[in-house]
Backbone:
């Protein structure tokens, strides 16, 4: 397996482990997926020297929130039948209001997204206390297109495919949530 394929396999394995842990966190009974998680982690061991402090882990989780956020946006923009309540799993405050408005406008206009966005990089910095973060991320939308009901692209000519945006992310009891997305960015 090539290094790139190994990294992709490790990322998929991590996603499976994370999803499995999230699904079983409230169920004290062990499930067969726990065995799978052990097998997966032995396939791609993490050196003990990469252990993160709680603050470093929070910054990493805040940065990864942007990937989850864009994944939800892609799903909701691609399927007008999906409930916009899915936004509440990744956003709050201004960000949820902004995207609820955007997606409602898309749907009223008969627009639908094809393809997905990619978060190429993200970096989080704690702000003030340990529950607030500023996250800067480079988003690649080159594989995403938005079309009208007739299938014609509504993407503006000359759209930048890669833009760097800054988000505010909150660590709350239910996880990490994007709380501010001003939709203003610079090419990256």
Residues:
């Amino acid at each position: 397996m090539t290094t790139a394929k190994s990294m992709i396999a490790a990322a998929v394995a991590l996603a499976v482990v994370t999803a499995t842990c999230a699904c079983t966190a409230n169920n004290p009974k062990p499930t067969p997926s726990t065995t799978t998680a052990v097998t997966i982690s032995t396939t791609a061991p993490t050196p003990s020297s990469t252990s993160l402090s709680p603050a470093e882990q929070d910054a990493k989780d805040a940065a990864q929130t942007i990937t989850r956020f864009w994944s939800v946006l892609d799903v909701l923009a691609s399927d007008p039948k999906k409930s916009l309540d899915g936004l509440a799993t990744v956003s709050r405050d201004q960000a949820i209001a902004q995207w609820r408005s955007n997606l409602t406008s898309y749907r009223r206009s008969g627009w639908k997204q094809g393809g997905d966005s990619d978060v190429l990089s993200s970096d989080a910095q704690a702000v003030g206390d340990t529950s607030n973060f500023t996250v800067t991320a480079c988003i690649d939308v080159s594989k995403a297109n938005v079309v009208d009901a007739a299938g014609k692209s509504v993407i503006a000519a000359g759209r930048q495919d890669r833009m760097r945006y800054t988000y505010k992310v909150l660590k709350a009891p239910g996880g990490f949530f994007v709380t501010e997305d001003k939709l203003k960015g610079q090419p990256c």
